[in-house]
Design goal:
Elements: H1 2-80, H2 88-101, E1 111-118, E2 121-124, E3 139-140, H3 147-153, E4 158-163, E5 169-177, E6 182-189, H4 190-280, H5 286-313, H6 316-320, H7 323-337, E7 341-347, H8 355-376, E8 380-388, E9 391-398, H9 405-408, H10 414-425, E10 429-434, E11 440-447
């Protein structure tokens, strides 16, 4: 009956592990998907920044070259165009405006702006590519729509991202033409620079989502049999471990009972026979008396050894008085061999468990104390055992050197692995917490008796 109950619990545990594994796979897939999209968008962003910087360099170079060209033409006209009716500056402007009529701009939205300041107004001298007017209306000098032109008219040269005369965000390079007191701006809409990258990003998301979706389905189908096989193997190993532990406990109990009952009774009867024999020996013969005393002492030592071995194999206190008393006995035995002090005030005497859970917790407690004696270098250990809602919680805390994180999951830590496996059989949890120089705390939490 108990074995069937254990198998039922194991199947439930395997189902839970399967769901946990599926969640872990899903989280892994989401992480990989997120990482893939991050890489794609990072690549697109870097390409966009490169295109932005290249366009910026082109606009600056174009504005500078056109401004310097106009200055050179102006200097030439100042020497050789005195016959132009409206003056040399007008001659230069007329040549530039005539050349501009043949220029269709760069890209879909790129254009030049040429303007001068007239009182508190900015007067445009070229027809705009995006305006139906031959010459657009002037705008106030302090208008937020003319920032690149305003800066150039102040004698500044540079590059900026800001609104143009249409209130559209543009990349603009501006240069002053000092000889003519004019301003030149070469600009292009920011949206034109971004548009291909927006389209590429949308295409990457669409195609990537399809590819990743297909990959997820394929990965899930291919990995599902392997995950099920691994989960099934873990369940089988856990069943085998529990069965071996149960067989060992049964064998130890049988041997302990046989040693205590049969060998103990035989030794007791032998001692009684020797006692009767002593009454028949010659009291005046010291050799006989010494031999009988020695035999009696050896039998007493053997009886004590038999009781100790029997108790170590299977403490009768655990079966007769329960887990709390067995834990107290175990600490007393360790205290006889070491200088460790035990604080047992946290042990609740009213905790009741079935035989299997009591055995599991007691063996975990024994292994924990063994680790403390071997490795912790502790002088004091506090033990608590209590029931919290539907769980039994055992906590063992020492003041030793403290366990390190890398030691908890180290393959060589077979004792800790055994503690975990014993708890997992009953769907329990084990937590190891340690800090260098501040000791180690082992907390075990098992479900209480099932009804």
């Amino acid at each position: 009956m108990l074995w069937k109950l254990f198998l039922q619990r194991t199947r439930m545990k395997r189902d839970v592990e399967m769901r946990d594994t599926q969640r872990q796979r899903l989280v892994l897939i989401l992480i990989m998907t997120g990482a893939a999209f991050v890489v794609v968008f990072l690549a697109i962003f870097l390409l966009y920044r490169t295109a932005f910087e290249e366009e910026k360099a082109r606009l600056i170079e174009t504005a500078q070259s056109q401004a310097r060209l106009m200055e050179a033409v102006a200097r030439f006209d100042s020497v050789y165009s005195h016959n132009y009716p409206e003056g040399t500056e007008a001659a230069t402007l007329s040549q530039f405006i005539e050349a501009h009529k043949q220029f269709k701009g760069f890209g879909d939205t790129g254009e030049f702006i040429l303007a001068k300041r007239v009182s508190d107004q900015i007067k445009f001298l070229l027809s705009h590519r995006h305006s139906s007017l031959m010459i657009p209306d002037s705008i106030p000098f302090d208008s937020p729509l003319g920032e690149p032109i305003r800066r150039a008219l102040k004698g500044q040269a540079g590059f900026m991202v800001g609104p143009d005369y249409r209130n559209v965000t543009t990349l603009a390079a501006y240069e002053p033409i000092e000889h003519l007191h004019l301003a030149l701006v070469a600009k292009i809409d920011l949206a034109e620079i971004r548009e291909p990258f927006y389209k590429t990003g949308l295409l990457a998301v669409t195609v990537g989502a399809g590819v990743i979706g297909a990959s997820i389905v394929l990965f899930w189908r291919l990995s599902n049999p392997m995950v099920e096989e691994i989960t099934h193997s873990r369940g089988q190993l856990r069943q085998l471990t529990h069965r071996l532990q149960a067989i060992r406990e049964e064998e130890q109990t049988r041997i302990a009972r046989a040693v205590h009952d049969e060998l103990g009774q035989t030794l007791t009867a032998l001692k009684m026979e020797i006692t009767c024999l002593q009454d028949e020996l010659d009291p005046d013969n010291p050799e006989h008396k010494q031999s009988s005393d020695t035999m009696t002492r050896l039998i007493d030592q053997t009886i004590a050894a038999v009781q100790r071995i029997s108790t170590e194999l299977r403490p009768r206190l655990l079966d007769v008085f329960g887990l709390p008393e067995a834990m107290k006995w175990q600490t007393q035995e360790i205290q006889k061999r070491t200088n460790i002090e035990f604080d047992l005030q946290g042990i609740d005497q009213h905790v009741k468990l079935d035989a299997e859970r009591s055995t599991a917790l007691f063996r975990i407690f024994q292994e924990t104390l063994t680790n403390i004696v071997r490795h912790a270098q502790a002088s004091r250990v506090s033990v608590s055992l209590k029931q919290e809602n539907r769980h039994i919680v055992m906590e063992v805390q020492d003041n030793g050197i403290g366990i390190r994180k890398h030691q908890i999951h180290r393959p060589q830590s077979l004792g800790l692995l055994g503690i975990r496996e014993r708890a997992l059989v009953w769907q329990g949890k084990v937590r190891f917490h340690g800090a260098p120089g501040k000791g180690t705390t082992v907390t075990v939490k098992l479900p209480a008796n099932s009804k």
